């Protein structure tokens, strides 16, 4: 039995799906789920690849923040 009921009917998943799509357009595969953006980089990720991934996230999140405040 569940500890808490979760009503997913009233949750808007579109913003997180848009973030996931923006990451994918830039070459980063993410797994949007509810209000989370899951990222699972490979264990053999180089420092440069990690920096590139963080730059993608920074760009996408900055764009989302601009849409939210604008």
Keyword list:
70 residues; mainly alpha; two-stranded antiparallel ribbon; 2 strands
Q: Helicity, in percent?
A: 40-55%
Largest sheet entry? 2 strands, antiparallel
Helix segment count?
A: 2
Shape estimate: flat
Backbone CA Rg: 15 Å
Number of strands: 2
Q: Write out the strand line-up for the largest beta sheet, numbering strands in chain order.
A: 1-2
Order of helices and strands: HEEH
How much is the average pLDDT? Answer: 87
β-strand percent reads 5-15%
Whole-Å distance between the termini? 43 Å
Sheet/helix structural class: mainly alpha
Low-pLDDT regions: none
Compact summary:
The protein is about 50% helix and about 10% strand. It contains 2 helices and 2 strands. A hairpin with a 2-residue loop joins β1 and β2 (about 35-40).
Report what the structure shows:
- With 70 residues, the protein is mainly α.
- It is 50% helix and 9% strand.
- The chain is built from two helices and two strands; from the N terminus they run αββα.
- A two-stranded antiparallel ribbon has the order 1-2.
- Helix 1 packs across helix 2 (47-69).
- The protein is flat.
- The protein starts with 13 loop residues before the first helix and ends with a helix.
């Amino acid at each position: 039995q569940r500890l808490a009921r979760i009503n997913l009917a009233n949750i808007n998943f579109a913003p997180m799906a848009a973030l996931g799509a923006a990451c994918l357009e830039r070459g980063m595969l993410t797994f949007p789920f509810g209000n989370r953006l899951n990222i699972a980089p490979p264990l053999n990720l180089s420092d440069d690849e990690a920096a590139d991934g963080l730059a993608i996230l920074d760009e996408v999140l900055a764009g989302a923040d601009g849409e939210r405040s604008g």
